Amino acid sequence: VDPNEMKVLSVLKDASATAVFGVRGANGVILITTKRGNLGKPKITFDGQYSTSMPSKIPHTLSSYDVHSLINNVVINEVGLREDAWKFYKPQEVLNYYETQEYPKILPDIDWTELMLKDASSSYKFNTNIAGGTEFVKYFGSLGYLHEGGILNAADVGQDFLPNFSHDRFNFRSNLDFQFTPTTLISMNLAGNYSFTNDPGYNDNNQKIMKGIYSMPPDLYPIQYSDGTYANNKSFLYENPYV
């Protein structure tokens, strides 16, 4: 129920709830009385709200330089027991290339969290009401729209849809009161909502995008090659989360 449609919200609990609703009111009851029309000229109101929200902290992963520096330290400490550990050692010159990104297509350094996550998400809602009436009919109508976004920063790279999280909802309500005779009042209430949620990243019950962001090595491959092809490696546990 859109808050702009509410006139009175009551909370019943304990005996006051069970006395009216029986066992169904054992956990309490919330009663909502929606707005209705009044005698008078049509009155139109409009309300809009915009808000942003952000996580308290977004963990970031290590850079390619830091990762291979740590691996080199492990190799130095391990080579006394395993001589073949040298094959995992990278010369300082290569590490410098990771840091300077002189060859980003060959020795990439991708911060997937920086690429795929925004600092904040935005939400907004709009609502318009109309109310009024005559001696014969009193009316109230409401139309609302709500949009909630997420911090995922994915893009349409040819899949013909935007793979970001979003939730959209449309609300409508029409309350009519017909006074046919001084003793005959007929009320008609029509209300509903339509909502749809775009919830990407699920593949065989795994959150492909989020797990890809925090599991993808920063040097596995670049985001995109010079010819426009997006890099991917389906043999790796998690595929390129960008695509």
Care to describe what's here?
The chain is of the alpha+beta class. The protein has a 5-stranded antiparallel β-sheet, with no helix packed on it. Strands 1-2 form a two-stranded antiparallel sheet. A two-stranded antiparallel ribbon has the order 8-9. Helix 2 packs antiparallel against helix 3. The longest helix has 15 residues. The chain is elongated.
Q: Low-confidence spans: pLDDT under 50, at least 5 residues?
A: none
Q: Into which percent range does the helicity of residues fall?
A: 10-25%
Main beta sheet = 5 strands, antiparallel
End-to-end separation in angstroms reads 37 Å
Notable traits:
9 strands; alpha+beta; five-stranded antiparallel beta sheet; two-stranded antiparallel sheet; 36% strand; 243 residues; 5 helices; elongated
Give the gist of this structure:
The chain is α+β, with helices and mostly antiparallel strands.
Walk me through the topology.
Layout: E1 6-12, H1 15-21, E2 29-34, E3 40-53, H2 64-78, H3 92-100, H4 112-116, E4 121-133, E5 137-149, E6 166-181, E7 184-198, E8 202-203, E9 206-207, H5 208-215
Antiparallel strand pairs: 1-2, 3-4, 4-5, 5-6, 6-7, 8-9
Helix pairs in contact: 2-3
